[in-house]
Fold:
Amino acid sequence: MPTKTATKTKNALLEEIEAKNAEIKDLKKRVEALDRYKVYEDGANELAAVRDAYINAGFTEEQAWELAKMAFEGALKKAFPW
Structure:
């Protein structure tokens, strides 16, 4: 007994596959962009943790921020000495 669903032609299926492949490609680009953003988010969280550690050690927020910036700049100079 035939079903009520229409059978798709080969061309219709190929078009659907092409559309899905384009969608997959777009989603992969979006994932890559989010991964790059995640790197910056992780760095910001680390910097905030260093600042918080200085505050917990008794420094004012302003002092803690300056010390965290100095630590961050020092790490950058060490990692990228040029």
Q: What stands out?
A: Residues 10-56 form the longest helix (47 residues).
